[in-house]
């Protein structure tokens, strides 16, 4: 079920500095575990979350390029930090600083993924919203969804090249710069 | 958990719940951080217990993931990736901050080391260019010295052969003056015999009386000539002696000159060997030495650059 069925209300939801929103997924991104804060802030019951693809909370304002990057990085068995805007089932939205990592079994095989989400600093949200708006504009100009991913990806690449940073460096510069 | 008053079989439900929690703890203790406590009941206590246990596991999971990833990033030199302390409390947080302090220290050290690396590299650059300049100058100087030594050597050879030619000339001069001496001796003998003849003629003329008067005049002229010849010969002998003495001196001087030039020539050969290297005795020349120095320094600098 796609998150786009929920209409955003514009209501912003936040969570505490000491709190963490946690989910685990299988290798395809289907939710296998969600902590109580995830359910509460996403306005989902546990049985509505478990077994659903993670795009159940996808916000239409999120650029596709960011999720492409997320899956590309995970495929390389690396960690990724990303600022993500999520859409709760009741139409409210919330920003998180997500840390997504592969989970390994005893033999070192990837068995799924894990996301720890922290409360982002307001200054970081402002900067990231601007960046994401530019990426979405680039994606919106594309003719097809596939072109859109490509266009957003290119726009993200250009932005990063201009700054001389990798995406994770950008995230960390925002994180170290405002949240410390 | 004991307050499960509404539950018709509170003991059994608690047992199941405890078993579920125990299973999860066993898995997590064994390092399987994917395990969480499944739903263990709808009572407020059951929900709170599950939330608390899973919350603890989430924190430990987060701490372990952060610790591993942050130190791995530091090992790769990505010091901007810190231990994210947000979401952690109490000892979790203070340990995380401790890790970040260590990362800061590592980062400072890494910066210092890379600064030292830069300094070492620029030192290597300077050394290389200095040695290159010096060895080029030495090579140029060696070429010039080699050329000068060659020039000097042929000059010395010329001087030696000049002196030898001078010796020959002076020696032939001596032979010539010996011949002059012999000739003068002969003239002297002739003169003294002439004088004797003149004496006899004078006596014979006296004996002939007035008839011999004219002849006596002639005999006296002849005697005078003989005397003049003798005195001229003595003068010549004196001159010849002076010439011979001078020739002997010249021989001494020329021999000294040619000895000196032979010594100079040996010294020049020494310079040439020092500059170009001697085929014998395996001596290395100055320009080869400069080349060896340059090669050694290049190797040293390459090692410094790659380490
Ligand atoms: C562990 C994990 C956590 C994720 N968390 C989120 C999330 O919080 N919000 C979100 O929109 N997508 C999240 N995703 C990405 C989704 O799987 C999906 O790629 C994304 O929502 C885009 O969906 P779409 O391709 O249908 O547009 C997560 C993926 C993984 C593996």
TrEMBL record, chain A:
GO terms for biological process: regulation of DNA-templated transcription. It comes from the Bacteria. Pfam families: PAS. Residues 26-77 form the PAS domain. This is PAS domain S-box protein. It comes from Actinoplanes aureus. The lineage of its organism: Bacteria, Bacillati, Actinomycetota, Actinomycetes, Micromonosporales.
UniProtKB/TrEMBL annotation, chain B:
InterPro entries: Chemotax_Me-accpt_rcpt (IPR004090), MCPsignal_dom (IPR004089). One of its GO terms (molecular function) is transmembrane signaling receptor activity. GO terms for cellular component: membrane. GO terms for biological process: chemotaxis; signal transduction. Residues 95-307 form the Methyl-accepting transducer domain. Keywords: Transducer. Belongs to the methyl-accepting chemotaxis (MCP) protein family. This is Chemotaxis protein.
């Amino acid at each position: 079920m796609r998150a786009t069925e929920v209409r955003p209300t514009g209501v912003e939801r936040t969570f505490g500095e000491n709190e963490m929103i946690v989910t685990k997924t299988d290798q395809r991104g289907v939710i296998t575990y969600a902590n109580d804060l995830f359910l509460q802030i996403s306005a989902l019951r546990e049985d509505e979350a478990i077994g659903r693809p993670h795009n159940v909370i996808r916000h239409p304002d999120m650029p596709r390029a960011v999720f492409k990057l997320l899956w590309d990085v995970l495929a390389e068995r690396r960690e990724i930090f990303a600022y993500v805007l999520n859409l709760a089932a009741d139409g409210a939205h919330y920003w998180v600083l997500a840390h997504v990592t592969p989970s390994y079994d005893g033999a070192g095989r990837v068995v799924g993924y894990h996301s720890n989400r922290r409360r982002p600093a307001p200054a970081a949200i402002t900067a990231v919203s601007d960046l994401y708006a530019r990426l979405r504009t680039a994606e919106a100009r594309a003719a097809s969804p596939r072109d859109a991913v490509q266009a957003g990806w290119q726009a993200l690449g250009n932005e990063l090249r201009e700054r001389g940073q990798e995406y994770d460096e950008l995230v960390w510069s925002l994180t170290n710069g405002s949240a410390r | 958990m004991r307050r499960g008053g509404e539950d018709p079989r509170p003991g059994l439900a608690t047992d199941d719940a405890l078993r579920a929690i125990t299973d999860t703890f066993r898995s997590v203790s064994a390092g399987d951080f994917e395990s969480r406590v499944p739903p263990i009941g709808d009572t407020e206590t059951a929900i709170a217990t599950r939330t608390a246990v899973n919350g603890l596991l989430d924190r430990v999971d987060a701490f372990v993931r952060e610790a591993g990833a942050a130190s791995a990033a530091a090992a790769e030199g990505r010091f901007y990736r810190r231990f994210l302390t947000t979401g952690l409390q109490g000892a979790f947080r203070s340990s995380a901050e401790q890790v970040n302090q260590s990362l800061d220290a590592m980062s400072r050290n890494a910066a210092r080391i890379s600064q030292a690396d830069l300094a070492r590299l620029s030192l290597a650059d300077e050394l290389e260019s200095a040695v290159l300049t010096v060895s080029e100058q030495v090579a140029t100087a060696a070429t010039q010295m080699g050329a000068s030594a060659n020039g000097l050597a042929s000059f010395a050879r010329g001087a030696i052969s000049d002196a030898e030619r001078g010796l020959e000339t002076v020696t032939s001069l001596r032979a010539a003056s010996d011949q002059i001496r012999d000739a003068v001796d002969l003239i002297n003998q002739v003169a003294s015999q002439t004088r004797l003849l003149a004496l006899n003629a004078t006596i014979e003329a006296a004996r002939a009386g007035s008839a011999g008067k004219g002849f006596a005049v002639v005999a006296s002229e002849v005697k005078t000539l003989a005397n003049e010849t003798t005195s001229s010969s003595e003068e010549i002998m004196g001159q010849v002696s002076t010439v011979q003495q001078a020739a002997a001196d010249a021989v001494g001087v020329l021999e000294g000159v040619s000895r000196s030039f032979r010594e100079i020539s040996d010294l020049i050969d020494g310079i040439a060997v020092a500059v170009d290297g001697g085929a014998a005795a395996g001596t290395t020349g100055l320009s080869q030495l400069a080349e060896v120095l340059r090669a050694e320094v290049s190797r040293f600098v390459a090692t410094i650059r790659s380490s």
